[in-house]
Amino acid sequence: MEKVTYKLDTFEGPLDLLLHLIDKAEVDIYNIPIKEITDQYMSYLDDMQELELEVTSEFLVMAATLLSIKSKMLLPKPPVIELDYDDDYMMDEDYDPRAELVSKLIEYRKYKAIADHLRDKELERSLIYTREPEDLTPYVPHVIENPVKGLHIADLVHAFQKALRRMTSRNMIAKIRRDEISVKDRMKEVVNWLEQAGGKLLFSKLVDEDMTREGIVTTFLALLELMKMKAVVCYQHRLFEDIVIQAREEGFADGFSPDEISY
């Protein structure tokens, strides 16, 4: 005797099964023929038991719900009792035992449609192949660091004026003038002082009390030339404070020396 194989459709839950039965019967979800749908539902559960498939509790709960609705639909409607006051619990003559089930089915159908739409989008996305990310660092434009970033020309002018005022306010004392130093030699002196000071020096330390106006100007120009050569950077901790002169680490690390100063 040839062996007969039975195959049952799988459903995600009792609502999924009910929707399948309703769509298969091509009936209006708002006017479910509860007797026919209940009979088909119970028949499906019987088939599952015959095939020794596990019937979960949620399917049994829905079966009990359908049988309860079916029994209420078969029973005659009780007479409407009119009360003299408004009561939230007064029986509605238009009450439909299927209403709550219909509401759940409609909501489930919406979620099922959304899930199917997302599943289709997932399938479409799986057919798209994108290029692996690459390292674009070599293509990033190199930005040259500004050695005087954060320091405006007005700050240098202010420091220069401050040094001039300090020189002007000194007592006029007769003294022997010495030959003024050149900008090139002053640059070498600044580099040497930075090396001795550990790479950092205050601008005020470059201007001593005996320095002439010409000497201050020479020092100022020497500092600007060193900044132009990217040998030093200048900055202030706060507005109007003394300017800090700091040797650029990469410059001195590469062996920058006063002997390289020539122009």
What does this protein look like?
- The chain folds into 2 domains: 96 residues, no CATH class; 108 residues, Arc Repressor Mutant, subunit A.
- Helix 1 packs across helix 4 and helix 5 packs antiparallel against helix 7.
- The protein is 48% helix and 4% strand.
- Strands 1-3-2 form a 3-stranded antiparallel sheet.
- The N and C termini lie far apart (110 Å).
- The chain contains 8 helices and 3 strands, in the order ααααααβαββα.
- The longest helix is centred in the middle third of the chain and has 28 residues.
- The protein is mainly alpha-helical.
- The N terminus is likely disordered.
- InterPro entries: ScpA (IPR003768), ScpA-like_C (IPR023093).
- Keywords: Cell cycle, Cell division, Chromosome partition, Cytoplasm.
- Component of a cohesin-like complex composed of ScpA, ScpB and the Smc homodimer, in which ScpA and ScpB bind to the head domain of Smc. The presence of the three proteins is required for the association of the complex with DNA.
- It is found in: Cytoplasm.
